[in-house]
Design a protein that fits this description.
By secondary structure, this protein is of the alpha+beta class. The chain contains twelve helices and 20 strands. The strands form three sheets. It has an eight-stranded mixed β-sheet with strand order 7-9-8-6-10-11-12-13. A seven-stranded mixed β-sheet has the order 15-17-16-14-18-19-20, sandwiched between helices. Strands 2-1-5-4-3 form a five-stranded antiparallel β-sheet, covered by helices on one side. Helix 1 runs antiparallel to helix 3, helix 1 runs parallel beside helix 4 and helix 3 packs across helix 5. The longest helix is centred in the first third of the chain and has 23 residues. The two termini are 33 Å apart. One of its GO terms (molecular function) is DNA binding. Keywords: DNA-binding. This is DNA-binding protein.
Length: 476
């Protein structure tokens, strides 16, 4: 196999993995540690600096210690595309999967652990599949697989969710099960975007192992020959009305809807909780993923305000006040997302809040009270920004933000976002939180979006050779 072909395989696999995870979890990065022969050095492929800051730990694990090389002397029996798993290096904020065999001493994928993940399981299965695909590419004797792994990994979301559920159900109920997971997931996605008289589905649908149905006490059940088939999505959607806004659940054996219950469900049950335009997928009490617009996603749909928390930690505020302001902003953002409207919040950290053009109040509104928070959430629907001071009081609403054009503007984001960028560029000690009507949240400070990510654009022409781990550790 030529060196050029190997490098193309690696870069295509990395690009496909990154692209697929970005659709599943939001903007994501990926990195790879790889050694292709027992005596070869470890090479690092990290085009978006995912591993930046973890250099001391990587040096300790892979340069100062050589115990990982013992795995390449594993007993016979592993095929060329099989790996003996290596221990997770436990890098803060990252998920990893790697392994070793006689031909490839080290292959380890990394991606970031998003703070709003429902479960790490599907993402880890994704990394495991990326490792298997890359091994197949490296074991191939021709270029027929060039680029194939990238396309496979781009659309792996449903398969990752299915793989994790199958593994967990094997642990819970054993290997000999009759509930097929792929048709179950297809049914959930099909019902999720089937409307009844213009309304999106609400309620719970449980998929139970057929052998365990006898343990369920049904409020109502259907004769065997008249049980609604899951293939008829319209009929299933109509039956969801029977469990809407209640603690009841429809029960299915994976082929038909058997009845309705409110009793505890058997172990290994796959549960879909429909909540309108979106919903959540559970295995027993463990949340696996969310779903919306006919696709599975990793997000728990809670606002991601990690960058706001970090910005508050860097301020001069005391810990209690940081926590109070974070709680207030989180509550307003969550309310805006639930009501599906956009809003802007100006967090003014100056000792004396500045004067903003907008609707002022005779006396600032105390946001530490339930009444104050409820009123602030209602004010957030009015055009303009909420003005919150470091004293946890609302000093104004419907405020106008202005400023001169700056390089950080994004014409694709609209007036709310760009006015916040302009305003913070000329005003220190301000943090602006912009909530879009379609859910994204942007944290902006000093004219820079703290939540922004740089996209990886592969350079045209020859694919470069990745640096060795020793060379990479010396990079500035």
């Amino acid at each position: 196999m030529s060196s050029a072909y190997r490098k193309l395989c690696i870069y295509h696999t990395l690009d496909g993995l990154r692209e697929g995870l970005s659709h599943f979890s939001g903007p994501s990065r990926a990195a790879l540690l790889l050694s292709l022969a027992p005596q070869d050095p470890i090479r690092v492929l990290d085009p978006q600096f995912l591993l930046d800051g973890h250099q001391p730990k990587l040096r300790e694990l892979f340069l100062d210690c050589t115990a990982w090389r013992a795995a390449c002397n594993a007993p016979e029996g592993l095929r060329p595309f099989e790996l003996r798993p290596l221990q997770d290096p436990q890098l803060t904020g990252l998920l990893a999967f790697g392994g070793s065999n006689r031909e490839v001493p080290l292959l380890m994928w990394f991606t970031e652990e998003h703070p709003d993940l429902c479960s790490k399981g599907p993402t880890l299965r994704w990394l495991e599949h990326a490792a298997a695909q890359l091994l197949l590419d490296l074991a191939a004797s021709n270029d027929l697989r060039d680029g194939a792994s990238g396309f496979v990994l781009q659309g792996y979301a449903t398969h990752a969710v299915r793989d994790y559920i199958v593994d967990r159900r094997n642990e819970l109920v054993g290997l000999d099960t009759h509930l097929r997971v792929y048709p179950t997931l297809d049914t959930i996605l099909g019902i999720s975007h089937t409307r009844e008289e213009g309304a999106w589905p609400r309620g719970r649908l449980a998929f139970v192992e057929p052998a365990l149905l006898r343990d369920i006490h049904f409020l109502a059940s259907f004769p065997r020959m008249e049980q609604p088939s899951l293939a008829n999505l319209r009929h299933c959607r109509k039956l969801m009305l029977a469990v809407e806004s209640s603690d009841r659940a429809l029960v299915s054996d994976g082929r038909t809807i058997v009845g309705i219950t409110r009793e505890p469900l058997p172990q290994g049950t796959i549960l879909a909780d429909f909540q309108g335009r979106h919903g959540f997928l559970f295995l027993d009490d463990e949340i696996i993923a969310s779903f919306a617009d006919g696709a599975f996603q990793s997000t728990n749909r809670k606002p991601n305000l990690v960058q706001l928390e970090e910005a508050l930690l860097e301020s001069s505020l005391g810990y209690d006040r940081q926590h109070e302001l974070f709680r207030i902003v989180s509550g307003i953002v969550a309310c805006a997302q639930e009501r599906k409207h956009g809003c802007t919040i100006v967090l003014d950290l100056r000792e004396a809040p500045r004067s903003l053009a907008g609707q002022t109040l005779h006396a600032p509104l105390n946001l530490t009270t339930a009444e104050g928070m409820d009123l602030a959430c209602s004010f957030a629907k009015v055009d303009g920004a909420l003005h919150i001071g470091r004293d946890a009081h609302l000093h104004g609403f419907a405020c106008l933000l202005d400023g001169r054009a700056v390089p950080g503007e994004n014409r694709a984001r609209g007036a709310r976002y760009n006015s916040a960028v302009r305003f913070t560029a000329t005003n220190d000690e301000l943090i602006v939180i912009v909530v879009s009507a379609d859910r994204p949240v942007s944290i902006i400070q000093r004219g820079i979006e703290l939540t922004a990510r740089c996209a990886w654009t592969p350079l045209p022409g020859r694919v470069p050779t990745p640096p060795t781990l020793e060379e990479w550790l010396k990079l500035p």
